[in-house]
Amino acid sequence: KIEKTDLLIVGSGAAGFTASMAAREAGVKNLIMIEKMAVPGGNSQLAAGGMNAAGTKFQKQAGIEDNPQLMFDDTMKGGKNVSNPDLVRVLADKSNESIEWLDKHGATLSHVGQGGGSSAARMHGPADGAFVGPYLSKFFRDEAAKSNLDLRLNTKLVKLIKGTNGEITGALVKGKHTGIYQIDAKAVILATGGIGANPELIQKLRPDISPEVKTSNQPGSQGDGIILGENVGAAVVDAKEIQLNPTLLVGSPVIVSETVRGAGAVFVNKEGKRFISELTTRDKTSAAVSKQTGGVAYEIFDQKVRDKVKQTGAAFELGLAKEGRTLEELGKNAGIDPKNLAATIAQYNKYAEAGNDPEFGRPKISAKVDTPNFYAIEVTPAIHYYMGGLKINPQAKVIDKNGKVIEGLFAAGEVTGGVHGKNRLGGNSISETITFGRISGEEAAKRIANN
Ligand code: ADP
């Protein structure tokens, strides 16, 4: 059986859903979206932080000065200058437009927080300070229902089909109950996410990463889109670049957002000592946490931060946050040297008062940890994100090993490489999915209109 459609979108994370909306807005009438898991959402649904954007009205309302050039510079620097500058330029320049686009459709990311490696507060989340992933995921599911999107769950891409001129003409997909069938399409968008739940592939690419390291990824992140793209000649960039996130909540699959540290949490080890600036990049932080006793660290914060930052909530709901009326009591309850902890925080508070951290150079140090109760959350690094992936151009067209566009094949989101280089900044993943998701949908629509 062969089905015919105009556009086939593979994957139901933020990139896939955004592409579907943008394609429809650009006039695409017939589209099918497939998702191999039983539920939509992908890793996007788990995103704890926010969406980076520069020069937004929400930043202006909060008195934050920022601009796309600064976001470009931060992203290039964070990625150690190996990112493709043309893609980073698009990410930064279109970020405000993407925030506006979401807002126009009813997804308002008006809360602005600080992420690691960003020189301005530009991590946008929902107004109440909740997680961005679940919020956007619900928004996308509602949109899909409203627009009667043909979303087929339990349906996996197994092969891309090439026409006689090397263009992509469709795919073989496998439904859990229907078996394998063919969908012919004028364009295919790969939005299949990363590789974080494929330990064999990770070991092959990075034998230096211990097989013991946990993952924050949902089980569908197996690298399918990258492998199937390569099978039709696509080039892969930055193949070895796998990011660990330093702060998986120990005992859960939940990542503790950087915004908790941004709002004032202090990192200590079991000995109760600080060991790094709380707001440096993820690669440096992960390496530093791995070296501490037991490969863990603790985020220490007070009642002010707990009240202000929603992202601490999961640790409390899961019963994994430790508590004390004093820092000594907290130390005892959390298994951190109590005397050192109290001394470290007393010293930290002096730095906060002076607005300068001579020991570790934490930027924008101002909030003291001084309002009981006190809390500790234990964290450890986990495999989090694949910076590598399919090579694309700024039109989200997939590029082959000879540097030529593979006609009819588009990709957006974590499945692509080139945007984040050797290290992704927190908040840039959702930003990438929305901006390049939109571009892939619009560009696919152009191709469909011309064919
Ligand atoms: P992004 O952040 O780039 O949108 P996500 O991880 O959020 O990526 O979403 C990717 C989605 O693609 C996941 O839901 C994943 O299960 C799905 N997916 C991965 N491989 C396939 C495949 N072969 N066929 C269909 N869906 C897939």
UniProtKB/TrEMBL annotation:
Sorted alphabetically, the keyword list is: Electron transport, FAD, Flavoprotein, Heme, Iron, Metal-binding, Oxidoreductase, Signal, Transport
What is the protein name stated in its UniProt record? Fumarate reductase
State the EC number(s).
Answer: 1.3.2.4
Q: Which cofactor does it need?
A: heme c; FAD
**Localization (cell):** Cell envelope
How many cofactors are bound and how?
Binds 1 FAD per subunit.
* Family statement: Belongs to the FAD-dependent oxidoreductase 2 family. FRD/SDH subfamily.
GO molecular function terms attached to this record? FMN binding; metal ion binding; oxidoreductase activity
Answer yes or no on keyword Metal-binding.
yes
Keyword Metal-binding in annotation: yes
A GO cellular-component term linked to this record: cell envelope
Reactions performed catalytically: 2 Fe(III)-[cytochrome c] + succinate = fumarate + 2 Fe(II)-[cytochrome c] + 2 H(+)
Occurrences of domain FAD-dependent oxidoreductase 2 FAD-binding (ranges): 6-430
